[in-house]
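Repro:
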Amino acid sequence: MNTVNASTSFSGFQLKSGFSPQILPPMVTPESRPALDHDAVHSLIESMETNFLDAMDSLTAAKLIQAYYANLERTPEIPYNVGNLVMLSTLN
């Protein structure tokens, strides 16, 4: 639930909800919590958007790195023309 993804550096819960859940109950009772004002809500939404964009950037970077290393192992493309004879392996 709260496992941090290696590619995004965020947990799924944090990206969806904007915060990581606490394992221990909060020390502040619900009655003494301050009421949310517009600035706090705006700040939370901005934080969620920033986290989402950071996660997207991290995923894009991971995708590029994976493509780079996958392309290192590829063989050069052989140009085939119509009428060329080729041998196919059915060992699969």
